[in-house]
Amino acid sequence: MKPAPGDNPYSRLRSSMLVVLMLFGLGPLFAMGIAGFLANQQAVEAQTRSVLDSMVKNRKVTVELFLEEKLRELELAASLHPVAELSKRPVLEALRDRMRREGGGIVDLGLIDASGHHLAYVGPYDLVDQDYSQQPWFEQVRVLGRYESDVFLGFRRFPHMVMAVTLREAGKEYILRATIDTDLLSALVREGGLESGADVFVMNQAGEYQTRYNDAHRLMEKVDIGPMPVHSGVRQFETTRAGRRELVTTTWLRHDSWVLVARKPLPGWSSFLWAHPIVTRIFLIGLVIVPILSVLVARFRLKQIRTLEAEHAALYESVAATEKMATIGRLAATVAHEVNNPLAVIHAQVGLLRDSLADVPDFPLAQEFSSRLKKIESHIARGKQVTHRLLGFSRRMGPDIDRVDVKDALEEAVGFFEREALVSGVRIVRDYAPDLPTILTSLAQLQQVFVNIINNAVDAIGRDGEVRLSIHQRDNGVEIQISDNGPGIPPQNLDKIFKPFFSTKGGENDHSGLGLAICKATMENLGGSISVGSEPGKGTTFTLWLPRENTVESTATP
Amino acid sequence: MAALRILLVDDELDFIEPLARRMERRGMQCVALQDGEKALALIQTERFNCVVLDVRMPGIDGIEVLRRIRRDHPDLPVVLLTGHASVELGVRGMQLGAFEYLLKPIDLDDLLDTVRRAADHALAGA
């Protein structure tokens, strides 16, 4: 359709309809999505809190138990064996092997005297000749009697953790020192696996990793959340890391020298959508379907509106046309009346003149006068024919049922076109069967149908052609055929011409397209029928049939 | 046979005057009046065989005149002759007892024929 100024209101209507439909469709979808997300997030957050809480609590127990057990093993060893035995390498080795067998976690074992030198050492490193007297833990263990270190580099230049206890014998102090397997400790912290996205590790007061995990947690490297204050019990807080909210849960252990940290990102939009594929799918389908449906519904409604408006316009037009016809009918009757009276006066006067002329037998101009009067009389007759026909036609607007001579009715209708036909060179050929019966029908309505169809025929021909009128008896009724040799009607339009608002005539004449529809309705009303046959290039024939006795009730009110 | 006495009532003088003269010429006695009231007054005193009456007139119209004639002189036939044709008017006139309803302009012979038939009918009925 080409854009026209008249389309603007429609396109505006369409956009506003689309906006409203989309709002009504997508609004609830988004609202449900957001509500679902928030509800889900709350639930997930609560769950995460409790998971992290119980995780740090039981990991703390595990780690503390492990370290306590190692320390006790060391203390037990120190109290059971005299220094003389412990300084023998095989004894120390046997001790270490037993400790390894029973609980594991011990890498090496060494007995050191008060000067800081190894009396004996078993383990994978070459530490026999090291002097420990300058190590920071050396003094501490001598003061406290037992000691656990953080992870540090030490002599072996490798992060490790040591544990030491003092033993006294014969007034001398000795130190039994063991290296704790940090891998085992690390494994203990992550024991049983973690939920996806969750992370757990141990950190010292300086904010350095004390447990390792692949390449993510390297021993002694700084943790991204940094050192944190000591607190009692379990603490939970939210923080943002790499743009994502995460829940951190901490608890301090080993007399507040280490802190166990468990953390897990809180769910965002993407994780929510990934976690609920059905919801996501429904949402996406909605996102696709709602606009499509909106467009379809808008288009459908718009089409309905357009059709309705067209129907209204056509109805208005037909009402206006009917009104116009009635007005024209009244006007014609008035004009006919007004013309008829002077015509009657002229007629009377002329009659008197004719009488007077007869009174003077030897009037020299009698011949001349008589022929002139005859001319006047013939023109009065012509005028009278017109006014009487108009009066006759307007008189019969009601649907009064009467005995009708179809031939006369058709002749009266065709009378309206005779002049036009003459001018445009259209011949009117009549083929009436003799002895046609009169039929019981409405003359006025029948003539309207005749006038309509003859008008179409004359229009179709345009110039120089033939309209053939025929009346015959058929099936206990009368068949009237009105044919023209005009251009005909294309087959695809043939079954549509009786439909309301169908018009093959161009816009200029402004036909409402109701003519033939009304004809059909009228014929059916009168108990008859109307059909059409046409051959493009040859012409069109309308065939009307009326029953002799119209069974349709008369609505006349005489 | 005595000449028929006809009363013509029509407000159009130019119509009624030549009509009256032509009818007289054809052996009838005509009185032409342009007023319904005068016509009603006249038929109280004079006898007519037939009244030819226009329908649309100033003052009381033809239908009213017809009604009163039918009421007071049921034997006097009335022929309606009008330029204003309408079914309702015609039907009404006939219902009120008009002898015939004719449309102007009318052929004089047709009018004379109708008037004669009306007079005959009245005589036969009397």
Quick synopsis:
The complex is a heterodimer of chains A (558) and B (126). Chain A is an alpha+beta fold.
Structure write-up:
The complex is a heterodimer of chains A (558) and B (126). Chain A is of the alpha+beta class. Chain A folds into 2 domains: 275 residues, PAS domain (Beta-Lactamase, 2-Layer Sandwich); 152 residues, 2-Layer Sandwich (Heat Shock Protein 90), CATH 3.30.565.10. Chain A is built from 13 helices and 16 strands. In chain A, strands 2-1-5-4-3 form a 5-stranded antiparallel beta sheet, sandwiched between helices. In chain A, strands 11-13-14-16-15 form a 5-stranded mixed beta sheet. In chain A, a hairpin with a 3-residue loop joins β15 and β16. In chain A, α9 crosses α11 and α11 packs antiparallel against α13. Chain A is rod-shaped. The N terminus and C terminus of chain A are likely disordered. Chain B has 126 residues and is α/β, with parallel strands linked by helices. Chain B has one domain: Rossmann fold (3-Layer(aba) Sandwich). In chain B, strands 2-1-3-4-5 form a 5-stranded parallel beta sheet, sandwiched between helices. In chain B, α2 packs parallel to α3. The longest helix of chain B has 18 residues. Chain B is globular and about 35 Å long. The two termini of chain B are 17 Å apart. The relative contact order of chain B is 0.17. At the A-B interface, α7 and α8 of A face α1 of B.
Keywords for this entry:
heterodimer; A: 558 residues; Beta-Lactamase; 2 domains; five-stranded mixed sheet; B: 126 residues; alpha/beta; Rossmann fold; 5 helices
Summing up helix and strand content along with how strands pair, one would put the structural category of chain A as alpha+beta
Would you identify the CATH H-level superfamily of the largest domain in chain A?
PAS domain
Outline type of chain A: rod-shaped
- In what range is the share of β-strand residues of chain B? 15-25%
Low-confidence stretches of chain B: none
| CATH topology category name of chain B | Rossmann fold
The biggest beta sheet of chain A is recorded as: 5 strands, antiparallel
Assigned CATH class of the largest domain in chain A: Alpha Beta
Number of helical segments with 4 or more residues of chain A: 13
- Most residues in contact: chain pair: A-B, 23 and 20 residues
Could you state the order of secondary-structure elements of chain B as H and E? EHEHEHEHEH
